[in-house]
Write a structure and sequence with these properties.
By secondary structure, the protein is α/β, with parallel strands linked by helices. 43% of the residues lie in helices and 20% in strands. The protein is built from 6 helices and 12 strands.
Length: 304
C-alpha cells in the first residue's frame, strides 16, 4: 500500500471510519469468541459456530472493503473533474501563453537605486555594476511568484523569458507578453495599454487609474493614496499576431501584488465570467490591512 493511498485512507469521512471501526470490532469479537471456544475445548459449539463466523467475517470484510472502494473511487473522480476544470479555466485565462511552442516574455518591474543599505543601516561597500543597481520590490516579486505558479499549473515550462523593460525589443510584440508594474518601474506597460486599446490607463504621473469609457478615476484625490492603493489587472489580445497580453500593475507595489493575488485566487471565477475573452479589473486595496484586503471597484466588460 503506497503513501498516497495511506493519505487517502486518513482522509476518510467520519461515517466511513465509524463503519470500518464497527466492522473491525465485529471481526475482533468473532475471533475472540473463536479463541475462547478453542481454549475451552467446546468442539460442539465450535463446529456449529465456525461456519457462521466465517460467513460473518466475509460479509463484514466485503462491506468494509466496498465502502472504502466506493468512497475512494468517488473522491478520485471528483479530483479528476476538478483538475479538468482547473485546466480549462487556465486555458481560458492564459490561452496561447501556456503553449510550450510559443514564446512568452515576462517583463519584470525594476527601479534603479544609487546604493544598497544592509540590514544594519550601513551602505554595502561592494563594487556593484550599473546593471546590478536595479531592484524589483519584494511585493512585486511575491506577485510575480503567484503568476508563475499559475503558469506552471497550466503546464508552461518552456519558452518563458524573464526580462526587464530595457531588454525589451519591438519584435517581442509578436509574442505573448506579461507586463508587471506601472510606467514608473516598467516603460512597456503604458505602451501596451495605449497601443492595444486597453479600457483603463494610468495618468502621466502613474498616480491615478482612469477609465477611458467613463472618465472615472481612482483615487479621486492624491491624498487617498496614503491609505489606499489601486491596481490594474488587464488581459488584452494582439489580433494581428494572435497573441495574448497581460498587464498587472498597481499605483504602488501593494496594488501590483493584490492584482496578482486576485488572479491567482479567482482564475476559475474569471474564466466562468469571461471565458477566453479580454477583461479588465480595477482593485482598491487597504494598505494598512495588506494586499489580501481588496475590493473590485470596476470591471469591464460590465458583469451583470
Amino acid at each position: 500500500m503506497d503513501k498516497e493511498l495511506f493519505k487517502e485512507l486518513a482522509g476518510l469521512p467520519a461515517s466511513i471510519k465509524t463503519a470500518l471501526s464497527l466492522s473491525a470490532l465485529g471481526i475482533i469479537g468473532m475471533l475472540a469468541l473463536l479463541g475462547y471456544l478453542i481454549a475451552q475445548d467446546r468442539a460442539d459449539l465450535l463446529e456449529k459456530s465456525s461456519f457462521t463466523m466465517l460467513v460473518g467475517l466475509a460479509f463484514t470484510g466485503i462491506i468494509a472493503i466496498s465502502a472504502v472502494s466506493l468512497w475512494l473511487e468517488r473522491k478520485r473522480g471528483i479530483e479528476k473533474e476538478r483538475e479538468k476544470s482547473e485546466d480549462n479555466s487556465l486555458k481560458n485565462i492564459f490561452e496561447n501563453i501556456l503553449s510550450n511552442d510559443e514564446d512568452c516574455y515576462f517583463i519584470y518591474s525594476k527601479t534603479p537605486v544609487g546604493k544598497y543599505i544592509d540590514q544594519y543601516g550601513e551602505e554595502i561597500e561592494y563594487p556593484f555594476l550599473d546593471k546590478e543597481k536595479h531592484v524589483t520590490t519584494l511585493m512585486d516579486v511575491r506577485g510575480i511568484a503567484y503568476i508563475h505558479s499559475l503558469l506552471y499549473l497550466g503546464g508552461k515550462i518552456e519558452k518563458l523569458e524573464q526580462i526587464n523593460c530595457e531588454e525589451f525589443r519591438d519584435d517581442y510584440y509578436s509574442s505573448n507578453l506579461i507586463s508587471i508594474g506601472s510606467k514608473n518601474s516598467n516603460t512597456i506597460t503604458p505602451k501596451i495599454l495605449t497601443g492595444y486599446d486597453a479600457a483603463f490607463l494610468f495618468d502621466e504621473e502613474a498616480m491615478k487609474i482612469i477609465c477611458k469609457k467613463t472618465g472615472d478615476s481612482w483615487p479621486d484625490k492624491k491624498e487617498t493614496l496614503e491609505k489606499k492603493d489601486y491596481g490594474l489587472l488587464i488581459k488584452l489580445k494582439n489580433i494581428a499576431y494572435k497573441k495574448t497580453y497581460f498587464v498587472i500593475a498597481g499605483i504602488g507595489p501593494t496594488g501590483t501584488l493584490a492584482c496578482c493575488y486576485y488572479l491567482y485566487l479567482n482564475f476559475r471565477k474569471i474564466s466562468d465570467t469571461f471565458s477566453d475573452t479580454p477583461f479588465s479589473y480595477v482593485l482598491e486595496i487597504d494598505r494598512d490591512l495588506g494586499f489580501t484586503k481588496y475590493k473590485v471597484v470596476k470591471s469591464l466588460p460590465e458583469v451583470s
